[in-house]
Structure formats: structure tokens, C-alpha cells
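quick one, 205 residues, struct below
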Amino acid sequence: MAIEPLTPERRRQQTRDHLLAAAAQVFADRGFHGASLDEVAAVAGFTKGAVYSNFKNKEDLFLALFKANYDREMDALRATLEASEVPPESRLSDFAALIWEQTRQPGNFGVLYQEFWLYAARNPAAREELTRLEDENVRGIAEVLVAERKRQGLVPLESPERVARVIAVLFHGIGLLGVLQPEVADEELIETAIALVARGLGEAT
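---
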């Protein structure tokens, strides 16, 4: 297999990915407020200048980490949908297992999200950036809903983004519940939530 040359673009992407991995560790250990860019740089093995060459500040780095996590979740969702021709409502266990795995990943994303959400509620600039990220995530979910309903011959949703927003809020809530009461936010609860969503997604044409 031919080895791809390590172009400046690939080198920059590798540096960015390495910084995000280090940030995930530092934020998980320290929280948003306790973490510092100096510590992220040290864990990554780079200078602080390398952090600033990729991210404007700690908020920018934090939001980039969350976007990367959202992107992974959306990729996993699309892969699950494309894995079988069986309707999603008949594969609740597949979706429950997917969400269960995501909510149990290391990184304390539920706690970190809540911490940054409270910070953003009092900081207009951070609120604007978090809102932009959330809106992007909702649009991604809406696109999946539209494509899946079309594939299965279901009538279009009147407002895919509104439904996507409800789904996003529902599973944010389950993620937070899992922080304090993991025995309650179990796979069975997730499967129940998915069943409710599936029943509300409309009628066949």
C-alpha cells in the first residue's frame, strides 16, 4: 500500500486531532473552568503556541471537542440506519445499544455539557457559539429524519427541525440523568425513549 505524503495540511490535521484528544482528557479531569490551555499543551506534548495556532481560546477548543463528539455520534447513527433495510422502529435494540454506548463513553460529556451550558447562559459570546453548534447538530438530525422517511415511503414531517430539536433535548436529558443515576438511565429507559420517538414519527404513505 502506498504511503501518503505528510503534507502540511495533513500535519496540521494531525496536530489538531492530537490537541483535541489531549483536551478531552484534561477537560474530563478538570472540568471546563478548571482546565487550562497550558495543561492541554503539556498533555499533548506541544507548546501553548501550537494550541493558539489551532484554536482561538479555551471556549473555541471546548466547542471544537463537542463538535467532534457530535460528528462521531451522527456518523454512528447513519451507519446504524444504513446497516439494514429493517425499519428503525423494528430495531430499537440496535439504537438503544448505540445510544447506551455513547452515553457511557469516557469523557464526562454530560457533566461538561451542563457546565458549559451554565457558563454560556451568563456569557453572550459563548451562548452564541453554543447555540450555533446546537443548531448545526439539530439540522444534522433533521437531515437524517428527512432522508430516512423518504427511504421508507413515509409522509414528510411538517417541521423536521422541530422534531429533531425534541429528540436532541430528550437525549441530552437522558445523558444528564445518567450522570447522577446511571442505574435509572439504563438501556431499557433508552429503548423506551426510542420507542416513543419512533411512534411519533408519522404515518406511512
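The chain has a mean pLDDT of 84.
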